[in-house]
Design a protein that fits this description.
alpha/beta, Rossmann fold, GMP Synthetase, Chain A, domain 3, 3 domains, 21 helices, about 40% helix
Length: about 600
């Protein structure tokens, strides 16, 4: 079989790609952001000049090839400028979430050995600098907003505008320097939670991201790779947005518009008129609720037309039987009315909504597909650049995660685990040879996911071997770490955290029986756990313990609600293994209704 040719140029590094594109597309708008209530843009040439200025500023601070530079910022033009300025020196970007606590930042600073950092707002700098002050390796921090310090810290703080103004925008110098960077060199360290607890730095090389971008260009070539606009709103610290929402648009010469925030996303879509959006299932769930509520609230014929559009759109997509002539005419009418209005809410130019980061519920996918919105689910993980597969626009299957990207090998192990090989696979985990050896075996990435291929070569994910929670926003959370912290509290003997594909975490708790006995005596309560389980005072006492733990966790890790288990998790009831590890799937099945009830 002949391989499909790549419709874009194959570059040797991300920086070569960027400076090459900036030279070719110099006067075209690239980055859009709202300032003072109005959209303002930077051209490719202006962006390249900013990259060169910041690269020179970092170089003046002693940053050299191979050094690590942390980036802490919300999505904005400066994020991309910082990322490419770091890579322009042959250095390594280390994206960090804006939701990180000082403790999280300190772990990343200590693990990565970062020499410098770039931070956006005063608020983020306040948290980050608490960690920076405790770091032995970090020497410099550049802040996009001016930060006034009352006392000197163990790190020198510089202001973005001042640092850039002191440098000449020698674009040709860094374009030449980019030639010394290869596809094998590490571009970024993206930290992801592992079963061991502390986040691990995934070493993603230039070739992995370019592999994803080139393969995506092949998949979407039929939709047109010219004159595209991406609306960026998922965190750029997430591998999915970093590759698909930033680097891929650059390779095809697209515009990138930065959404203000989630609350203004609907207005931003109407203004930016994106052709492509990189999204997570949680957004679709929210939008489905919002659209349905708005339509059905009006009732009458509008609601009838809306429901009929979904009914006929679903029937047409499934193609189990053809639409009748009457239904075809009716469906055409609904295209011109209902579906046109829905598409207009998304800007009216959408070619594709690409969903990843977490599994998409088939009914949610069908809802948008039936309304004429091209929704394509994909699959991957940070360790694979991150994209492994995606549904092709010409033949999507909503219940699958699509077909493999070109130049990607996948085999299904004897136990059903999905194994991946190719340029997209990471170099390993930073300073963690043990985890690397477990995950990369003979060149194959062990994903921890279980799946199978259907007759058409579409990949289906059927289970997850690893106990990592992927929430509705696509963020990875290690439940064992949180459960361990809960179980260390005097009041709690055992805990299980739940929240796969959910907006937040909830938990199941077994009280410590010795503590419970003392608590009951001190509070004049009688009876054992079976009697006290529904006592509101007991719930309040345990809530205090959970709150103490939550104070030490990031927002993503906090347990928002909890319920009490009916009994301890034991080997006898098969909720624990002989080595006293939690059988998560069994406990989840036993308490499914209780846990799901915590989200209502």
């Amino acid at each position: 079989m002949t391989a499909t040719p790549c419709p874009i140029k194959k570059w040797q590094s991300l920086t070569s790609m960027f400076f090459d594109q900036a030279s070719t597309l110099s006067g075209k708008p690239l980055l859009y952001a709202k300032k003072g209530g109005k959209w303002q843009h930077l051209t490719w040439a202006q962006t390249a000049e900013q990259v060169a200025r910041l690269a020179a500023a970092l170089e003046a601070l002693g940053v050299r090839a191979g050094d690590r530079v942390v980036i802490v910022s919300e999505n904005r033009p400066e994020w991309l400028i910082a990322d490419f300025a770091v890579m322009a020196l042959g250095a390594i970007s280390v994206p960090a979430y804006t939701t990180y606590t000082a403790r999280d930042h300190l772990h990343i600073l200590e693990n990565s050995g970062a020499k410098a950092a770039i931070v956006s707002t005063k608020t983020l700098a306040r948290t980050f600098l608490k960690a920076a002050h405790q770091s032995d390796d970090l020497e410099h921090t550049i802040t996009m907003e001016e930060v006034k310090l009352e006392q000197s810290l163990n790190v020198t703080v510089h202001q973005w505008d001042t640092a850039l103004a002191a440098q000449e925008p020698d674009v040709s110098k860094y374009r030449s320097l980019a030639q010394s960077v290869s596809r094998h060199d590490i571009a970024c360290l993206i930290y992801t939670s592992g079963t061991g607890g502390a986040p691990k730095g995934v070493m993603i090389h230039h070739g992995a991201i370019l592999h994803n971008s080139e393969a995506a260009a092949i998949v979407f070539n039929d939709l047109g790779l010219k004159d595209n606009a991406f609306l960026s709103f998922l965190p750029l610290s997430h591998a999915y947005e970093h590759t698909a929402g930033q680097c891929w648009p650059l390779t095809i010469g697209a515009e990138i518009w930065y959404a203000e925030n989630l609350d203004k996303l609907a207005a931003n879509m109407a203004e930016a008129k994106p052709t492509v959006m990189v999204v997570v299932p949680r957004l679709f769930e929210m939008l489905r609720t919002r659209i349905s509520r708005a339509i059905l609230k009006g009732g009458g014929r509008k609601a009838d037309f809306f429901n009929r559009a979904i009914e006929l759109g679903t029937k047409k997509f499934k193609a189990e039987e053809p639409l009748s002539l009457k239904e075809k005419a009716e469906n055409l009418f609904l295209d011109l009315t209902v579906r046109r209005k829905v598409k207009k809410q998304f800007g009216g130019r959408l070619k594709a909504l690409v969903s990843g980061g977490a599994p998409l519920a088939p009914d949610v996918g069908m809802f948008f597909t039936s309304l004429g919105l091209p929704l394509l689910q994909g699959y991957g993980q940070t360790e694979s650049g991150p994209i492994i597969s995606v549904n092709p626009p010409a033949a999507p299957k909503i219940h699958t995660v699509g077909t493999l990207l070109s130049n990607t090998e996948v085999k299904i192990a004897d136990d059903g685990e999905i194994l991946v090989r190719g340029e997209l696979v990471m170099k390993g985990y930073w300073h963690d040879e043990r985890s690397t050896a477990k995950t990369l075996v003979d060149g194959w990435l062990h994903t921890g996911d279980v799946g199978r291929f259907d007759d058409d070569g579409h990949l289906e994910i059927t289970d997850r071997k690893k106990d990592i929670i992927v929430n509705a926003g696509g963020d990875n959370v290690s439940p064992q770490r949180i459960e361990g912290m809960l179980a260390l509290e005097d009041e709690i003997a055992q805990a299980m955290v739940y929240g796969d594909k959910k907006p937040h975490l909830v938990g199941l708790i077994v009280p410590d029986m010795d503590w419970l006995r003392d608590w009951a005596k001190e509070n004049g309560k009688s009876g054992g756990f079976e009697v006290l389980r529904d006592d509101p005072d007991l719930k309040k006492a345990l809530d205090a313990a959970v709150t103490r733990v939550n104070k030490r966790l990031s927002n993503l890790e906090k347990v928002r609600k909890f319920a009490l288990a009916k009994e301890a998790f034991t080997i006898e009831n098969e909720q624990m293994t002989p080595t006293l590890k939690l059988r998560r799937h069994i406990v989840s099945d036993v308490y499914r209704d209780t846990l799901e009830g915590l989200y209502h």
